[in-house]
Amino acid sequence: MLTVRQVVFRGVREQGGQRLAEVEVSTDHPKDSKLLAYFRSGPKGYQLVRVLSDKAGLETDWFDNRMHDAYDDVTMTMFAGPSHGGENDRSHFARQVLEYDGIVGDFDRNMRQP
Fold first, then answer.
1. Does the pTM exceed 0.90?
2. How many CB atoms lie within 10 A of CB 84?
3. Strand order in the sheet with 34-42
4. How far apart are alpha carbons 24 and 44 in whole angstroms?
5. pLDDT at 97 > cutoff 80
6. Integer Cα distance of 80 and 59 in angstroms
7. What is the pLDDT of residues 27-56, one digit of tens each?
8. Distances in whole angstroms, Cα of residue 65 to Cα of each of 3, 9, 35, 81
């Protein structure tokens, strides 16, 4: 399981008519130590929608670089496979992010409709 080391609120994004809170997550994972996680507001609180690996770098991504994918959707691969518990891993990761100091407050303040 991943251990979340730091979470930073980055803002609210619109996607498919839905407002999503975007956070940058630093983890202990050797390959994907920097992730972007997206949460929506649901009837039972905030729900994890997707996770992207953040491989953006100043040398390669300061312009529209079509030769490099700075962000890969790792939602399915991150929570699947023989060493992962699927929904349990997903819930554990989401809980770690949401329990990080001040994040739910950031979500509450910024996810309200403008």
1. no
2. 15
3. 4-15, 18-27, 34-42, 45-54, 71-73
4. 23
5. yes
6. 32
7. 987 776 899 999 999 999 999 999 998 765
8. 31, 25, 20, 31
CA atoms within 13 A on the CB side of 103: 24
Pick the closest to residue 93 from 20, 10, 12, 36 (CA basis): 36
Cβ-in-10-Å burial (0-12, 13-18, 19+) of 61 comes to middle
Instruction: Check: CB of residue 25 under 8 Å from CB of residue 4.
Output: yes
Amino acid letter, residue 2: L
Q: For residues 65 and 84, give the distance between their C-alpha atoms in angstroms, rounded to a whole number.
A: 33
Q: What's the rounded Cα separation, in Å, for the pair 27 and 108?
A: 24
Tokens of 32: 């994907």
Integer Cα distance of 72 and 37 in angstroms:
12
Question: Nearest-CA neighbor of 57 among 47, 68, 49?
Answer: 68
The CA-CA-CA angle for residues 50, 54, 56, to 5°, reads: 145
